[in-house]
Structures are given as C-alpha cells and as structure tokens.
Amino acid sequence: MVDTLKHGIDERGIATVTMFRANVHNAFNDDLIWELSHIFNNLSADDTVRAVVLTGAGKSFSAGADLNWMKAAAAYTEKQNIRDALRLSEMLAAVNDCTKPTIAIVNGAAFGGGVGLVSCCDIAIAVDSAKFSLSEVKLGLTPATISPYVIAAIGARAARRYFLTGERFGAAEAKHIGLVHETAVSLQESFSLAHVFIKEILAGAPCAQAEAKELIASVSGREITEDLRTDTARRIALRRISSEGIEGLSAFLEKRKASWNDPS
C-alpha cells in the first residue's frame, strides 16, 4: 500500500497529520481512507498525544472522493457499495470521535468529503483563498455519509442551500455558517492561529477534554429532561472527585500551574 499521509508528534504531544496525495488534491481512495482511520484510532488511544492537527499537502485540503475510486464503485453491487461507503463512514467517525482535540487547517479547496473532514474536527481554520463545495448533487449523488457531521457544523438551514445547489463558497462564508471558526491570510498565519488554540488546549486537563467532547455528543439535540439533568449532575460530580479535578482545584487555590499545563 502506498503511503497517502504523513504524520509526526512533537515534544509537546501535538500530532500533525498531513494528507499526502497532492497530485490528486488529496482526494479519498481506499488507501487514504484506511490510513486516516488507522492513524486517528491510534492517536486517540495514545496517552502521550494532547492534540491533533489535520491538513493537506499541496494546494488543496481535500477534493473529496477520487474520481477513479468513484468510477470503480459505480460497477460494484449494492452490497459492495454499502461495504465501501461504510469504510468512509468509519473513517469519518474515527476523526469525529477522536478523544483528543482536533484542529483542521484548511490550506485550500475542500469539496464533498473534504467538507465532511473539516466538520469532523473540533476547531477549523481556513486560509482566505480556500473554496468549499458540497457538489454531490451535480454528480447525481448526495452527501449522505458526511451529512451528520456537516449538518451538525452548519445547521439544517445552511445545508438546505448548499446540499441542493452544490455551489462553491469561500472562507468568509464558511466562517459565517459555522463550518470554520477562523480565517487567515496565509497558511503560515493559519498555523500561527492553530498554535494559539494549542496553547489553550495544553492548559486543559486531557481526560476532562476527552469527557467534554463526549459530553457534547451526548447532550447535543436532547430535550432537557430529569434524566438528562441527572446524567449531567453525575458527570460533574465524578469530575470533582477525579484526580484531575482535585489537582485542578488545588492548583487554582495555590496559584500555580496544574501538573498537565504547558510549561512554556
């Protein structure tokens, strides 16, 4: 299998994952889907990792599905197509469910599944020149597999426009609809912004951050009932008596940095 991404982990525990199919705008094929699933599952389980930065090599973040990959899928049976689509779904879930804070740096075009990847990350930064599109309907398809993540990011109202028109939009509009959090004039500035977020992330407790991510997934969209209130009360009660909770409160009262804090 050809390597379709590169990754490294620095001394602070910040992992950088770079999709490495620049010649085809980092479009998804079986290999890239497998490697993204594999690396995010591994990073999620690695206690030395504090955060993950995801970006693309070359001029694009990701153009979505590789045309040759889609052409091959057109000849599959329904059963084969379902199995193939589930692999993509599992990859998106691996990114979305990563226990570590994730930051997408959108260095260029993000189309189709590339928008899905951006939506799966906790924080997204785009260069001003980045372009976005959910163009599946123009190919006679729908953005079905990525839809839970994209709709969670941009809301149903914006989805009703962009899922149906397939039009392209820029970084400013992506920020306006909630797909990205910040824009930057250059890739260098994007990484500088990412480092600002990383500094804040390193000031937080790792297990608390993982539980905060799970809390969002559990609470989002639910009706506020007695069961939900009981569940959230139980969660904070357990956090208060956890080793991180005790250390964090002690550090605050003693006016010192907590043990997990970035020493810089």
Q: What does this 3D model show about the protein?
A:
With 264 residues, the chain is an alpha/beta fold. It has two domains: 5-201, 2-enoyl-CoA Hydratase, Chain A, domain 1, CATH 3.90.226.10; 205-253, no CATH class. Helix content is 50%, strand content 16%. The chain has a six-stranded mixed beta sheet, with helices on both faces. Helix 1 runs parallel beside helix 3 (78-96), helix 3 packs parallel to helix 4 and helix 4 crosses helix 5 (147-165). It is globular, with a radius of gyration of 19 Å.
Gist of the model:
With 264 residues, this protein is of the alpha/beta class. Helices cover 50% and strands 16% of the residues. Strand 1 and strand 2 (14-19) form a beta hairpin.
Count of distinct structural domains: 2
Low-confidence stretches: none
Which class do the helix and strand fractions yield? alpha/beta
Which strand order do you get reading across the main beta sheet? Answer: 1-2-3-5-7-10
What's the total number of strands?
10
CATH superfamily of the largest domain: 2-enoyl-CoA Hydratase, Chain A, domain 1
The main sheet comes to: 6 strands, mixed
- Tally the helices: 10
CATH topology of the largest domain: 2-enoyl-CoA Hydratase, Chain A, domain 1
What's the architecture of the largest domain in CATH terms?
Alpha-Beta Complex
β-sheet strand percentage: 15-25%
Using only CA atoms, what is the Rg? 19 Å
* Fraction of helical residues: 40-55%
* Cα separation of the termini: 40 Å
What is the residue-mean pLDDT, rounded to a whole number?
94
CATH classification, class level of the largest domain: Alpha Beta
The shape is: globular
* Oligomer type: single chain
